[in-house]
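ESCALATION

Customer reports they have been waiting on this structure for their group meeting. Please prioritize. Original submission:
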Amino acid sequence: MVLVFVVLTATALFDPLLDLLALTPIALLALGFFLQAAIVTNTIYWRLRLRYNLPMSVLGFNMNVVYHIAWPLAVVFAGMSLVGILWSLLLFMHRPLAQVMALPGSPRPGSPLEALGLSSPSTLAIAVFYSFDVVLLMPLMEEILFRGFAYTPVSRRFGQQKAAIFTAVLWALVHPLGFPRTVIIILVGILYAYLYQRTESLLPSLSFHIAGNTAITLGWLLSDLKDAERLVPPTTAMSCVLFAIVWSIYKRTKPTEASQCDEG
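Update from on-call: job pushed to the front of the queue and completed.
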């Protein structure tokens, strides 16, 4: 656990150092997130290799990989489909069909989405790099650090419940958010710890984490469209199709009782 605090403290020094580069705010964030993810994951990788002679996969990447990705995505797309169907029904009840099925319009004047559309290729590339950090690299780093690396030793010493709460609070502290969202992050962190303990895999919590960050990022951008609600019906249809695909993969890859006994 000392290593966790040392690494987090060290990466916190990135902000004043990166400020010396005189980059744009989004470039600073993109570079800072990338360096933090790279240093934390590599520190844990070499710690496992040099001290325990173990691969990174022992943290929860080495069992029923496709299955542990498929079922969380099935839950995500099922939820999106259900919410989308109800939302679409409300739209069709209160608006003419032709209006609902039209294009969502252009970005609102002065919105971040409009600024992104008018930006230079280099700025757009930085925005893509930043999104890659937020959607993929940071969830991967956080799941490896807080669930894969920190949770197990704490649970051995203090028990599963205390370990789940402790790592969830620690995870929330690295997110500079207000009180209501901090509580939500703690609750989600406890849920992720439960999933990790129950499945012995990081992939379910990682899949939910990536899906959540993706939804927040896209929702933040697309909400800048003049009539973003027109995206609800096509998004719902796409979610239903993706749910059917992922559900079929889940059914084909679900471990049998015999295979679970063999692994045990």
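Sent to customer with the following note: Residues 135 and 213 are 5 Å apart (CA to CA).
Escalation resolved.
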